[in-house]
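Encode chain A's predicted structure.
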Amino acid sequence: MSAPEVVVFLRPGCHLCHDALEDLEALREQEPFTVRSVDIERDDRLHARYLERIPVIALAGEELCDFAVDGERVLQALRDLRERVGAGAARRRPTVAPPRERTAEPLLRASPVPVERVSRIAAPPMPTAEPTLAPTPAPATVGSVPGAAGNADPAAPRLGAGQAERLSRYLQVLTQARKMGRATMSSQELSAHTHVNSTQIRRDLSGFGRFGKRGVGYDVEELVARIRGILHTNQRVGIVLLGAGHLGRAIAGSDVFADHGFEVVAVLDNDPAKIGTPIGELEIGDVRHLAEVVREGEVVVGVIASPAKAAQGLADELVEAGVQIIFNYSGALLRTPPNVAVHTSSPAVDLLHALYYYLS
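Encoded structure for chain A:
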């Protein structure tokens, strides 16, 4: 039989994928096979199926392993395939072989295909091959900020929703560690603070370059900068805060946005007693000027920190002004058009989630 083909589903630039290809190259010294790489970035269905698992190793339509090469499993699968093919060939072989074939060697004892005759696995840049499924146009990058200038990078890898959420959590912890003077942090420490498995953390980061040193950990400053670039938050993002009550003042006075490069350009309210009074480095403005503030301040995000009864009206005004991302701290259930993303934040929800695991 000809050398069997091992398929590797990967993404260009993924160092785990590169390591897997090197591992497969070493295995070919024990069992002959060829390698075909499939770039999941070229097909949305492959991207959705394999993004969180790459590299995925498959043989004869069966997925053998993901994240890393399980050498013993791959070799056993190759041997099993050879036995199945050999058994099938034996069943099809004539009862009495023609004279010219009587001295032929049995299939399983045939000389193995020399390694030098098998196509080599390309070194970086990563090899690509046409996927078996027809490629479709790539959607917009997850994590891009509508309306923010300079964030459209066609070469940037697309993130799954789960990966984008985890990277945001890593960034939050790393940013706080930097404020505390930490220079390095290990994946185990990140795991303890984010409740994400350390293996998953290394997998998430591996697709964007080599980070950290064994026994030392990640360079906090470098990793903060790299994750900000991946999430497209290394640019100015304007925010308008609606509501200057206790919650609004707490948000405006905290570093929750500034730590990540976001700029609160205005705090607006409808209470005449508050309008014109200072709040941090800003002065509380009149909410009637919302459209003007959004336009002149290049506002991307609206934050609602008002009482629940006023929240829907404020959301309607944000939508009319062109804001497409709304953070809702009011607790109200907001109705917005499909193109407007609403993120509701509630400490009670986080507490319920934590208590469930503590009490169960």
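The chain has three domains: 5-117, 161-230, 237-359.
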